[in-house]
Write a structure and sequence with these properties.
Elements lengths: L3 E5 L3 H13 L3 E5 L2 H11 L3 E4 L7 H11 L8 E5 L4 H9 L4 E4 L4 H12 L3
Parallel strand pairs: 1-2, 1-3, 3-4, 4-5
């Protein structure tokens, strides 16, 4: 099996559809449906990359991103934000926390897969 991707997003149908597409592309996909479980899964699994939503229950994506960056096990994992939140302030905050990319939903999965290949070539 290929590299492991952790998807942290509360939109379950969207997550299932994306997980299927990424699975067909050869990735191992794990999921979490809120910020707290996402951080816990990241620490337990230490995935190769995290796809993170911003607007979700149990703390939200920015808090999750801060917690991921504050853990010695996960601080260097590439994080790609995929969210409906497109305001400049949120994007700038995420960039300051060291994200690899910021996609606004609906996303182009071809561009996402290109970004994943780019991010994962160094792992």
């Amino acid at each position: 099996m290929g590299k492991t991707i952790l998807i942290v997003d509360d939109e379950k149908e969207w997550v299932r559809a994306l997980a299927i597409r990424l699975g067909h592309a050869g990735y191992r996909v794990e999921v979490a449906f809120d910020a707290v479980n996402g951080v816990a899964q990241a620490i337990n699994l230490v995935p190769d990359v995290i796809l993170l939503d911003i607007m979700m229950p149990a703390g939200g994506g920015i808090t999750a991103l801060k917690n991921i960056r504050n853990s010695s096990k996960t601080f260097n994992i590439p994080v790609i934000v995929i969210t409906a939140k497109s305001d400049k302030e949120t994007k700038e905050t995420a960039k300051k926390l060291g994200i690899s990319a910021y996609f606004v939903k609906p996303i182009d999965t071809v561009k996402l897969r290109e970004k994943l290949r780019e991010v994962l070539q160094y792992k």
